């Protein structure tokens, strides 16, 4: 099977068999007025807040959850296939969003902005009751991790899942944090991508997020 045929087959399996519907997302922020529509291709993991809003910085709380993660500097395509094969052979249903981490490498920009492309990708399990934590027995580069409950500062965006869209959100989050000293950064930034490559870029929805903790809890 050619690479293009394989890609089309996998995308059809991973996404087209899932009900596609136009979804109005809400957040747990009572001040939110923007409820974005987007192409919903898979269910959220249990207990996850709804997606959105667009171009508005909000705080979100995520419950403890389980995910499968791959770290690589070779690009997102290779990470995607490893994760897809992992959930396929373990009979794990695809969920949305897909998490992409932008942890800086040794060569980071002076202002701390991540340099380069995402260096990790994760597929989120629908429930913490699925599977078990640890390395995949057939591919040790895939690590199943249990993530503690966390709070993030988040902004919803439209556009491709590249660095340009990420930086647009990342800059707004940092501006918000500069005006809210009661919150401190507690982890690396990430993109949550809600759509497959089959959705046109202008319709794609994502969230850029930074984990935070209350300043009086920061170590």
Description:
- The protein has 219 residues and is of the alpha+beta class.
- The protein has a single domain (3-217), classed as Regulatory factor, effector binding domain (Multidrug-efflux Transporter 1 Regulator Bmrr, Chain A).
- It is built from three helices and twelve strands; from the N terminus they run αββββαβββββαβββ.
- It has helices at residues 3-16, 76-89, 163-178, and strands at 21-24, 37-40, 58-62, 65-71, 98-101, 120-124, 134-136, 139-147, 150-158, 183-185, 190-193, 205-214.
- Mean pLDDT is 83; it is low at 8-33.
Q: Which CATH architecture would you pick?
A: Alpha-Beta Barrel
Shape: globular
User: Mind summarizing the main beta sheet?
Assistant: 10 strands, antiparallel
DSSP helix count?
Answer: 3
CATH topology: Multidrug-efflux Transporter 1 Regulator Bmrr, Chain A
Task: Provide the domain count.
Answer: 1
Stretches with pLDDT under 50, minimum 5 residues: 8-33
The number of strands is 12
Quote the average pLDDT: 83
Helix content: 10-25%
Question: What is the CATH class?
Answer: Alpha Beta
Q: Hey, roughly how much beta strand do the residues contain? A: 25-35%
Tell me the span between the first and last alpha carbons: 53 Å
